[in-house]
Amino acid sequence: MTQPWMNTALSADERADLLVAQLTLDEMISLVHGPMPALCNPPPEDAAMGAGYIPGVPRLGIPPLNETDASLGIANPRRVRAGDGATGLPSGLALASSWDIDLAYEAGAMVGSEARDKGFNVLLGGGANLTREPRCGRNFEYLGEDPLLAGKLAGAGIKGAQSNQIVCTLKHFALNDQETCRHVVDARIDEAALRESDLLAFQIAIEDGDPGSIMCAYNKVNGEWAGENEFLLTQVLKKDWGYRGWVMSDWGAVHSTAKAVMAGLDQESGEQLDKQVYFGASLKVAIEDGEVPFERLSDMVQRILRSLFHHGVFDAPTERRETDYAANGEVALKAAEHGIVLLKNQNSVLPLSRKVRRIAVIGGHADQGVLSGGGSSQVIPVGVPGLELEVGGVAGAFVKVTYHPSSPLRAMEAEAPQTQFMFNDGSDPAAAADLARNCDLAIVFATQWATEAEDLPSLNLPDDQDALIASIASVNTKTIVVLETGTPVVMPWLDQVAGVLQAWYSGTRGGEAISRVLFGEVNPSGRLPISFPCSVEDLVRPEIPGLIFGPPIEGQTLPTTRPDVQQHKGRFSVDHPEGADIGYRWHDRQGSKPLFPFGFGLSYTDFAYSALTLTGGETITAKFEVTNTGARQGVETAQVYARVAGGSRLIGWARVSLKAGESRQVTVTADPRLLATYDVGVPGWRIDPSPMEVTLGPNAQQMSLSGSVLLTGTLIAP
Ligand code: BGC
Q1: Residue of 198, 250, 538, 671 marked active site
Q2: Which pLDDT tens digit goes with each residue over 595-641?
Q3: How much is the pLDDT for 568?
Q4: How far apart are CA 334 and CA 661, in angstroms?
Q5: Which residue's CA lies nearest to atom 6 of ligand 1?
Q6: Over 60: is that where the pLDDT of 498 sits?
Q7: Which residues surround ligand 1 with Cβ inside 6 Å?
Q8: CA of 251 to the centre of ligand 1 (A)
Q9: Which stretches within 428-533 are classed as H helix?
Q10: What is the phi/psi pair of residue 261, to 5°?
């Protein structure tokens, strides 16, 4: 065999080692840095035109790395691939609301297949950053506030994506929990708390998903840039967790050559956004001068090639194919349907009867489509977008508020042909109220656009929509609010309305999914993966640190819409006194009641729990029965929580589909790390030999059954 590394009988490591031995120094250097192809003039011929590109080595058969953002579908934020749309999944928070691991796999597999169709072999995303800041502009890309839920879903998504023989990247490692000042902020946190929260989410996602690469974050963590943070990249990731893939930088997140390389960063991405190309000529000099040992460069390249072999990129090169958008749209529809959360349903106003004569549909451009979130994850709809609105400011140069062309109004009209639907765009609240007064029922679509690079200034809906909803509710007692938001919002009008549906950003087929839930074709089964606070006073940080506006800095090129933050470079830190107590755990610690708790969601049927038995020992196993006590099929997500170190933690769940009257016994076994505290002295996870209280119920605040169980003292490696 002329290329012995193509022998599939060898392990990925053996194949990578054989290939590394063939590379010249220049070839090795060329594999550890690369540009945004769209900013190259001319763009590389073999670039698929995504966010990133690393040239291959044709003489040895090493393919170029064609990288695309893919948190919610194959992104095309700046439309560098003119006219190229893709299937848009609902937002990460919607997917997380499903608590459905199989669905996360299916969604990942679908996105991975579209990536192959478009010639991409490296996906950039999704992310497993936990929601520490409910106003964070990227919450919609992530999977909520719990390490187990986020880790499990991210892992399944990665596994699904990589089933297409491509590499998937998990991002942003770690603590990129606010977009404000993301290029300068130093997130400070205690190590044990970090291990028990954000790092645990990544750890679980890596164990379950085996991602070929990890992307570092922009921010600093405890004083060091995430991309030159030896503790994170080498100690935790590569040593403690034994991670064998490569670490790529975020775009514009590299600040040095030798320091970053020696800390464990393996590849510089989107290099035009860095102050200089750190991993090109400068790295070569550092190797030649002995500042960086040659072995480290070999390791960097070995990690990249190993992942490519391990995940099949060499053996199954991508070839452009037609995409089956109809089939993929079905996956997006299912994900949207599973992710919609019914928050309020007074007097069973929902599901809607098809006999209602006149329904007022107000606002949210519901006649044109469903909203999506902005930034690098932006999926451009296939065909004609529902609607595109210009954004002001720096963001406006490359972002538009984009609606997927799946109109809830049109879907409802098709669903209930006997009903008269009257649309009002909500821009004139008096006219909208006049319409609502004369209808049997009113549905208000409320939207909140969120984007990467900015946080939301408030937990309230923007553009006076709170007042609009209140005025509609004051004239029609049967007012239902459909929320298309990127993140939780407060609801000053909650007591006045009859129903609330949290539809998040619902993707390519979102309008149909919303309509099918409203009319009861689908029984809502979503459960919140994030607490809804009553007000900013419930948050760890009532004000977002660094939300300061100064004069823009000349010559600044970083992809932030708030360039003023550069002024604070290196001088701006955020403490995390909440530690591992994020979201529901913070509410628990503070004794504060959220508007809607983590895990909450209603159904058109009812469920009951019985026969809880608990087994202790090295971990906890809970066996119990769930019964559908109502009159129609439904899905319950039974959640098991334990009290660890004085606080409540989700330790497992079971998602059970039950026919009316049906019962099922289910078993949930905890990952023992969730029963432990992290002890930096050991170092490792420590479970004390003591009784532990366990509760079972439909959300973090409503406990149906409980018991206590004895644990054996155990130490678990980091
Ligand atoms: C984002 C990443 C993204 C990259 C490439 C960065 O600004 O933080 O999530 O993968 O751009 O588009």
Answers
A1: 250
A2: 999 999 999 999 999 999 999 999 999 999 999 999 999 999 999 99
A3: 52
A4: 25
A5: 251
A6: yes
A7: 51, 69, 124, 171, 250-251, 270, 376, 559
A8: 6
A9: 429-437, 465-475, 510-518
A10: -60, -45
Pocket test for ligand 1, best of 251, 272, 561 (most atoms within 8 A of CB): 251
Q: What angle do CA 293, 294, 300 make, to 5 degrees?
A: 100
Closest C-alpha residue for ligand 1 atom 7? 251
Cα–chain center distance at 152: 12
- Report the C-alpha gap between 606 and 608 in whole angstroms: 7
Ligand 1 centroid to Cα of residue 73, in Å, is 14
Answer yes or no: is pLDDT of 552 > 50.
no
**Under a CB-based contact definition with an 8 Å cutoff, are residues 291 and 258 in contact?**
yes
The SS3 of residue 648 is strand
Distance 509 CA to ligand 1 centre (A): 25
Q: List pLDDT tens digits, range 356-407.
A: 999 999 999 999 999 999 999 999 999 987 899 988 765 666 689 999 999 9
Q: Cα(229)–Cα(176) distance, rounded to whole angstroms?
A: 14
Ligand 1 centroid from CA 169, angstroms: 11
Which pLDDT score, from 0 to 100, does residue 561 have? 39
Q: Is 470 exposed, middle or buried (0-12, 13-18, 19+ CB in 10 A)?
A: middle
Atom of ligand 1 at shortest distance to CA of 77? 12
- C-alpha distances in Å from residue 93, one per residue of 160, 405, 449: 18, 20, 14
Q: Count CB atoms within 10 A of the CB of residue 41.
A: 5
Task: Please name the residue that has the structure tokens 């529809």.
Answer: 333
User: Quick check: is 250 catalytic?
Assistant: yes
Cα–Cα distance measured from residue 448 to residue 444, given in angstroms and rounded to the nearest whole number: 13
Place of tokens 């089939």: 327
If one residue of 68, 124, 181 were mutated to test the ligand 1 pocket, choosing by the most ligand atoms within 8 A of its CB, it would be 124
Q: Whose CA is nearest to atom 3 of ligand 1?
A: 376
**Least-confidence region, from 174-183, 292-301, 467-476:** 174-183
> How far apart are the C-alpha atoms of 505 and 372, rounded to whole Å?
5
- Indicate the pairing of strand 213-216 with strand 634-644: unpaired
Distance 126 CA to ligand 1 centre (A): 11
